[in-house]
Design a protein that fits this description.
There is one protein chain. The radius of gyration is 17 Å and the shape is globular. With 128 residues, it is mainly beta. A hairpin with a 5-residue loop joins strand 5 and strand 6. The N and C termini lie far apart (61 Å). The protein has one helix and seven strands, in the order E-E-H-E-E-E-E-E. The chain has a six-stranded antiparallel barrel with strand order 1-2-3-6-5-4.
Length: 128
């Protein structure tokens, strides 16, 4: 009897996030703000290995979360902030790849975003 291989489709059902863009002006003080891109996506939460956490901690980088999403090259990058639940996380790194079943995916490493967001105005002044 011939064995058939199974293709497993990726499932992203751990949560939902909203995408914001970091806007920096050219003033002397370099004001930074967030602006919503009006994009929401679901994600799969990944574990953060002790080795990765240790490597980043040694460079004073406090990794908070690692998530996997469908391929997102072009609209999420290191100038993006993701809102998950009520918390804001800056994209530290994004890695694009094709899995063993041929599905394009992106792994995103997130760190805390320091700042406040004014939901009424949809746009805010934030502190880096």
């Amino acid at each position: 009897m011939k064995k058939t291989s199974r293709i497993h489709m990726p499932i992203y059902n751990d949560g939902l996030f909203e995408v914001f863009e970091i806007i920096e002006d050219d003033s002397v003080l370099a004001n930074t703000s967030l602006q919503s891109k009006d994009i929401s996506m679901t994600y799969q939460e990944l574990g953060v290995s002790d080795r990765l956490r240790s490597d980043l901690d040694s460079h004073d980088i406090d990794i908070q979360l690692k998530i996997r999403v469908p391929y997102v090259k072009g609209f999420i990058d290191s100038m993006s902030v993701l809102k998950i639940d009520e918390h804001f996380y800056k994209v530290y790194n994004i890695y694009h790849f094709v899995d063993n079943n041929g599905f394009k995916q992106s792994d995103i490493t997130l760190v805390n975003w320091e700042g406040e967001y004014d939901e009424e105005n949809g746009f805010c002044q934030c502190i880096k």
